[in-house]
Amino acid sequence: MTHSVLKAVVIVGATSAFITGCASVNPFAKADPRWAEFKTWTKVTEGTEPTGDPSNLLGAVHKGEGGYRDVYVNDIGKDALLGAAPNNYPEGTVVVKHQFDNKADWESGENGDVTVSIKSADDGTRNKDNWVWAAGMKGKAGPSDFCSGCHTAALGLYDSDYVFTTAGFLEKHAEK
After folding, report:
1. Cβ–Cβ contacts within 10 Å for residue 136, how many?
2. Can you name the CATH fold of 38-174?
């Protein structure tokens, strides 16, 4: 094999690896239409300064105790989320957590990250298999043992179907 041919093979191989690697990130992808317009939905945390960790479960997740978070819900899940416990969400509920590192970013609405919970099925039980999660506006929703591991606590703590920030949660923690 000549030096020119070897160089061409290496360049083609490296280019293929780069393109394949970027396919999972795809900077040209559009936001998932199920949550692309989440800022037009009901803002559950309206009127609150949503920071801290009242559940004592955050650790470093969702920007941790020092982060600021706003929570939005689509019309399908609005009544369940804003209603009294037990909060049982219908299939098609989408809850978006918009999280920020600091108060200045939260106030400006800039530099935030998004995580998404979707009630993908309703088999009449509250179980993790009825939910999928996504990270980012362009994220792909799917099962997540990591997400469901923490969100299972919402069942026992707030009698809520895998969602922490409900009307009952906000009321309980506004008193403190």
Report:
1. 14
2. Chalcone isomerase (3.50.70)
Name residues whose C-beta falls within 8 Å of residue 98's C-beta, 6 or more positions apart in sequence.
38, 39, 69, 70, 71, 72, 112, 113, 114
Q: What is the DSSP letter of 1?
A: -
How far is 116 from 7, CA to CA, in rounded Å? 44
The whole-angstrom separation of Cα 23 and Cα 48 is 39
Please give the chain's pLDDT, 176 residues, in tens: 554 433 433 333 333 333 333 334 456 778 899 999 999 999 998 888 776 666 666 666 776 778 888 999 999 999 999 999 899 999 999 999 999 999 999 999 888 999 999 999 999 889 999 999 999 999 999 999 988 888 888 888 888 898 888 887 777 776 55
d(CA 144, CA 154): 16
Estimate the share of the chain in helix, then strand, then coil, as percent rounded to the nearest 5.
35, 20, 45
Which pTM does this prediction carry?
Answer: 0.79
